[in-house]
UniProtKB/TrEMBL annotation:
Organism superkingdom: Eukaryota
Single GO MF descriptor: hydrolase activity
InterPro entries, sorted: AB_hydrolase_3, AB_hydrolase_fold, GDXG_lipolytic_enzyme
Biological source species: Sinosuthora webbiana
All residue ranges annotated as the Alpha/beta hydrolase fold-3 domain in the record: 1-131
Gene name per UniProt: Aadacl3_1
This protein's UniProt keywords: Hydrolase
Stated name of the protein: ADCL3 protein
Length: 159
């Protein structure tokens, strides 16, 4: 479970671990989980003294959808001067893009448990829409307008 992983990380790294029980999709669509994680992180950073935590040692971490949330929270807080800077982010098999589910990594890891592109696309749609009605469009790559694909090609492409 996640509690066991959090205890392991806390014990092995001699760190304080705060596990956020964020609202889950499909019952709670985007941005519910993101807002929960952002709010919890902001609260924690504002009250570090209460928890006896060194502001220079705060790291966010997440796996799968939680990795996406950790990355999003890190990006949101990166420019904030009113809060301590995050030391790092640890992203464990995060879902970071939904533009193209046909990239080489999806092909290379086709048979790897947990990394199936169909499953990744399904969960992404559940998170964003609360349903997977457009799953085939997403898998084909026809869900993104051409101008958007061109705009992000530098970061999301097989090259």
């Amino acid at each position: 479970t996640h509690e066991e992983l959090c205890r392991f990380i806390a014990r092995e790294s001699e760190s304080v671990v705060v596990s956020v029980g964020y609202r889950l999709a499909p019952e709670h669509k985007y941005p519910a989980a993101y807002e929960d994680c952002l709010s919890a992180t902001q609260h924690f950073l504002q009250h570090l003294q209460h928890y006896a935590v060194d502001p220079a040692r705060v790291t966010v971490c997440g796996d799968s959808a939680g990795g996406n949330l950790a990355a999003a929270v890190s990006q949101t807080l990166a420019g904030r001067s009113d809060l301590p800077r995050l030391r790092a982010q640890i992203l464990i098999y995060p879902g970071l893009q939904a533009l193209d589910f046909n990239l080489p990594s999806y092909q290379q890891n086709r048979g790897v448990p947990l990394l199936f592109r169909e499953r990744a696309a399904f969960y992404m749609l559940q998170y964003l829409n609360g349903n997977a009605i457009k799953l085939e469009e997403v898998l084909e790559g026809s869900h993104i307008p051409v101008d958007i694909k061109l705009k992000y090609r530098k970061w999301v492409s097989p090259d």
